[in-house]
From TrEMBL:
Gene3D superfamilies linked to this entry: Homeodomain-like, Tetracycline Repressor, domain 2
Domain of life: Bacteria
Residue ranges flagged as DNA-binding region: 49-68
Signal peptide: none
Protein name: TetR/AcrR family transcriptional regulator
UniProt GO MF annotations: DNA binding
UniProt entry tagged with the keyword DNA-binding: yes
Domain HTH tetR-type: from-to ranges: 26-86
Keywords: DNA-binding
SUPFAM superfamilies with a match to the protein in the record: Homeodomain-like, Tetracyclin repressor-like, C-terminal domain
Organism field: Gordonibacter massiliensis (ex Traore et al. 2017)
Amino acid sequence: MPVFRLGRFADQGDGGNREKFESLPDERQEAIVNAGVELFGRNDYKNASTDAIARKAGISKGLLFFYFKNKKEFYLYLMERLMDKMTDLVVDDGFYEIDDFFELMEYSAHKKKDVFEKMSPFMLDFSIRAFYPEHKDIKDTMDGWTQAQVDLMFSRFFKNVRFDRFRDDVSPRRVLDMLIWMADGYLHQQRCLKKPIDIDALMDEFAEWCAMLKAYAYKEEYR
């Protein structure tokens, strides 16, 4: 099965030594990555201390900045790495056996839920903070990158979907956007209310959105 990599950050610099980082033993890499995910998950970007990340990882701050030239480069690397890992785990053999748009969306959602539950307990918090960036150093970069991922996702991962099931006046891409907007609205509301994200509740909501949009978007014989 081919593994697709999502788009890289356009302003991800080459001033660090990422190749040397990725030549480290896996356990050393994971210790540094997990420390970053935890500290960026517990704190917003501004208040995530690189000193604390280095201590958590068992390395010096100087060594962290040897591998990654600054805080921003390390943060963007974490986002790329976690998105790649998510893609590897979600886009499996079963993924490409599904030709129904809404079944594929629900399959992907539940696979992502499994990944969040099995990986770092801070991964969900890190991901949510990353998709709602507030600090000026990363906001424009993350906002632009996030939108670009939707374009890549649609072109690469929906190749086996039967779009002929959609009504002629309904755009599948528009339906994908609508599902993303609904999930975005749900997460935004929970954050505004300062409520923790209940991923099981989100899955229930997502299933209802898929059923509602399927009834709207599909030709009658495919509903």
